[in-house]
Design brief:
heterodimer; A: about 350 residues; mainly alpha; two-stranded antiparallel sheet; 4 strands; globular; B: about 500 residues; alpha/beta; 6-stranded mixed sheet; 17 helices
Amino acid sequence: MTPHSQSKPLLFALNNAPLILFALVLAVFGAVSPKFLAGDNLVNILIQASATGIVATGMTFVLLTAGVDLSVGAIMFVGAALAGKMVLAGHPLPLALAAMLGIGMVFGAVNAMFVTGLRIVAFIVTLATLFIGRGFALWITETRAMNLPENFLHLGSARIVGVPVPVIAFTAVVLLAHLILARTPLGRQIYALGNNPENARKAGVRADRILFAVYLISGLCAAFGGIISLAQLGAVSPKFGLDYEFKAIAAAVLGGTSLFGGRGRVFPGTVLGAVLIQSVENGLNILNVDPYLYPLITSAIIFLAVLLDSARNHLLATLSRRRIRVESPARTTVGPSS
Amino acid sequence: MSTHNKPQATNNELLSLQGITKSFSSVRVLKDVTFTLPAGHTLGLVGENGAGKSTLMNILGGNHQPDAGQMRLGGQPYAPRNPIDAIRHGIAFIHQELNLFPNLSIAENIFLTDFPRTAGLPWIQRRTLYTKTADLLAHVGLSLPPETLVERLSAGERQLVEIAKALSIDARLIILDEPTTSLSARETENLFALMRRLRERGISMIYISHIPGDVLRLCDDLVVLRDGEIVGSGPTGEFTADRMISLMVGRSLNQLYPTRRGQATTRPVLEVKSLSQPHVVHDITLTLHRGEVLGIFGLMGAGRSELARILFGLDPHTSGEIRIDSKSLGRAPALDRIQRGLAFLTEDRRTEGLCLEASIADNIALVSLRHHARTPLRLIHPTGWREGVRTMREAVRLTAKAGDSQPVKTLSGGNQQKVVLSKWLLAKPKGLILDEPTRGIDVGAKFEVYQLIHELADKGAGVLVISSEIEELIGICDRILVMRQGEIAGEFARREFDRERVLAAALHISRS
């Protein structure tokens, strides 16, 4: 607990790596294009980051238990396909949206059942539900895109007291998630379980219930993120929700959530991660960069963040190594004289 | 010595076990275990590793169910189905490896499954949480803010948090499993003082240990287990340390250390010259000879294990030289050092010395596997390596009960250590560095480890034994070096061995 004086700034920098990266991204794009830092564009970034951010919030719960949910993108697609079908068949919009959230909960519950009941590794379970979900949705949509009625799009562009609805939704989800994680028994037990599942069980934590809740929350967030994304796009294409699992994991990890469980926060961590990814895409878009380069650049930034995180852990390990000797000219002799 | 101050506590039995029997896959671990614990008493449960203490405690704690027998708690039948059940019955467990979450605060650790809330609302009442925690911490004598993260606490402080947790559930019975293993002498005294205070409050305890002195000081009654059976029980007054040990081991141990037959040569195996690393070690010079058992003694934090890690190439050094067979090692990595005949048994066998989930055979073969992959494709010869494993198992007298394919984690501490030793011996090392080779293993297994060390030396290897037990080093070494603050602070040849002088060198008692 007595770090070198010269490593303190370094540790501070590494501890706040996501924030510094974020500032850097803003500064670089801002310098190249003044349009990037314009208020309208910043709001735009927030709107665009909302869907990813909501899905990533659910993902953070799962990652905190050292699990993973690869099925989030598929959940978005199945939900959207079903909702689209319902709306086009003349069902009221609220009913379709409720059905979409229902799909999220069903998928979450199925994932949870396999993970807790049959003790199958989350990676395998959710990989399976990913394929099942995408396959099912392609089948019911007959792999055709569906254009949704205008009223759906209104939801995406509407504002309440000047604040865009997606941003309000994002804020509400983050606020609730943060409160759950920081201030409820469930939240604190999630951290305990992620730190050491065996110990958590011994301490009387109902591990299965918590895992169930976590996958349910992830499924629900995925479906809700799907609604926000659908409201902005106004159409369900066969590629809807594709690669969202990676975006969500990347946002959480960028925000400092550990893949080994027990460490991470929704706010500011995951929020920052989601906004950071979106800022990069938005900036590249403004600069007219070849869209095929986006994934390369985004992944380079994610790689950098993970690299910095690992550097931070290394530094912490070095600093916490026990000091045996005091290397200074005026060495005091320790030891009791009896 | 008993202070029956609580009226309801006198000879009221709190817990009774009747004919508890348990087998794991046809291996009988507990056989007809019967005893009672009067309320307010402290019961010492002693036995060698593998005697069945942990299984018995796991049954009490609801982790395992007995095959036969009954338990009664406070007069009622007691058959916990899981740990939560046991907690509800007021039984608190303090495990050898503490059950805390370093990423949570003290308060959160204590109230993890019982957070104070306003009825009907999901939110934790932080103020109540912190006042309740502060109250408990005051009882156990820990003056830290309740919101302190556990990762910042020392081993002793964590132990106190565990006890505060036990108090928080109003435990009737606290089970402490080897609680002093990772504590300093002062922390141990604190713990004992706290245990006496708890006893005065009428809390019953089961204290598991294999340090006879501690058990005799702390406990009212004793139960001695051997091979899953009770071989002795009764009030502590009926026991002496010698009697306890002979009951535990099943033979009288008139000799704790084997007689040293061989003799050190003057041919060096490992030479260290002016080795330094800032903040860690300074100007270390030592020579380990063929056939020599060289001890390194020092207090906690004197730099013994750190020196071992540098010698084995795991940590860097800025100046000085390390030589094996007169050839300098330079900055060669550990793999290189292994090939040149160095072996390193680490201080923490569970996390650094073993692959716990892997089998006995796989663990033993690990280091020397490359010798059995000599074909051009580097495929491992399917049977060749098994021969070596078998030879080693016989050489270290590893219990025959355990099959080659049994996971190492199911073995007792002593047998695990034998597996680690086998692994290194199979590589036929010239120089061995053994860091606390007998930590946490029982008396009988210790003796066997000492014998192995002597056999190795007799066959011409140099053995460097790092230990914090002076008696052990005096018992088995040819020469002892003392470390203090990262430096060599003293050297004693066998004829100069003297407990006080060695300790004085380690403490640096000034003669001014």
